[in-house]
Amino acid sequence: MSISGFLSQLLAIIVALVLAPLLMGWVNQWRAWLQNRTAPGLLQPYRMLNKLFHKESIVAETASPIFRLAPYIVFGCMVLACAIIPTLSTDLPMSPAADAIALVGLFAVARVFISLAAMDIGTAFGSLGARREMLIGFLAEPALLAILFNASLISNSTALTSIVEYLAHKEFAIYPSLAFAGIAFTMVSFAENARVPVDNPATHLELTMIHEALILEYSGRHLALIEWAVALKLFAYSCIGLALFFPWGIAEAEAPVVLIFALPALVLKLAVGGFLLALIETLSAKMRIFRVPEFLATAFLLAVIGMLVHFLLGA
Amino acid sequence: MNALIPQLINLFAAVILILAFAMLSQRRILNLIHLYTWQGLAVVGSTTVVAYVTDQHHLYYSAALTMALKVILIPWMLHRLINRLNVRWDIETLVNIPTLMIVGIALVVFAFNVALPISRFSETVAHGTLGIALACVLLSFLMMITRAKAVPQVIGFLAMENALFLAATSATYGMPMVVELGIALDVLVGILIMGVFMFQIREQFDSLDISHLEKLKED
Lengths: 315, 219
Description:
The complex is a heterodimer.
Chain A (H helix, E strand, L loop, with lengths): L2 H32 L9 H10 L11 H20 L15 H22 L2 H32 L4 H10 L6 H17 L18 H4 L5 H26 L13 H25 L8 H23 L1
Helix pairs in contact in A: 1-3, 1-9, 1-10, 2-9, 3-4, 3-9, 4-5, 5-6, 5-7, 5-11, 7-9, 7-11
Chain B lengths: L3 H21 L4 H26 L2 H29 L11 H25 L8 H17 L3 H23 L4 H29 L14
């Protein structure tokens, strides 16, 4: 492992950990402004994490070790996911450990454990949330895989770093299949990150909530880890989207100096992306839960059409 | 630069296909008209690019004609129509959109397979998009079959005309000007007549649901 590779890997993880709550704060701020509310400060997620880490965490009497372990597993999965997604540089020593398919697997592991923990306590809302989460998850996963395969078909590789290197540094070309994949990816990431058309992250109405119902029983540092993991997941999804569809500005292994420009480029792209996320969330209404399979089936089919179009136009 | 132009045509074709799928699953009439307008705009874009790359002047005229007709005039007429029929906020009860989508996918696969041997013999710059155009025609057919109300059926018909136009530009650089003008006029008159028909249907049955027409048969 080269020194520069090690450094860029370390930088990628630190940037993810630091920027993820900031992205969350940015999205929340824009959401509030667009809805004519007074916005919380940009640093509000950090303050909340700080507060939660200093609080005592209370665990139910009936909780098994899974309940205590789940926050750490979820957080670890999200950090690992952020480590293998090329955010700043494609020179990531950890990325050969997991390709795009394993990345989807990582998200699945996190989902399974958070659902197990929710059912572990035995409250009604926990298992209700867990069931809904698994319903959305099992529909979103094939769609996400199909989207990643779209990019893999173009670059002939499932490793995220080689996909990004191919898309960003080869001769510029328009890939119509990526237009399909882009729309499908937007739909899937709304579902996976519990954003408005599928789930409302700010809701406290028990009957409509999905993600919030899962973590009702958590408190203190456990809740802090989960909230941080949620922010990391949003960050990871944004970075996958940016890496696949707007890969410019990511540094290559041969040119580590570009890393200086990669960070401002990433922040700018995330800022625009966060604003668009808040805009879409404000403009759309939450769907009924039984509309969600339809929504995600559309995403999956769009991704499949993307692959078909690739074969038709590439042949 | 030259490699980008066929890719740009392909991109426009892909956008038209996406919009065809969006129309297939759209419940609101108002949004359907918006989608139709965007599809017309994408057709104009693709025609203009083909005209630019092949240096065929008559394609510029047909692009301008498409712009005037399918992006401005027909959407305006449709808006007026749904205002006067008072169905602006109507929502159609479409059951089982996922199944509809799967049928759509099967149609796309079929169209691509049919078009592949044809486009292999074609020398035009946009030969790859023939399959997409064919798929859009079939999807518009599907939309007309599955809709119960009159206005979405008309929009399906119009979308089919868009797709045929795309097929013509991709396979043969457009039809002769006389044919194109004729079709444009046909569509325009078709819209007018169908508008009158819709008023008649509603007067007779108090609804725009086509299934009521079955009552017309004599016992």
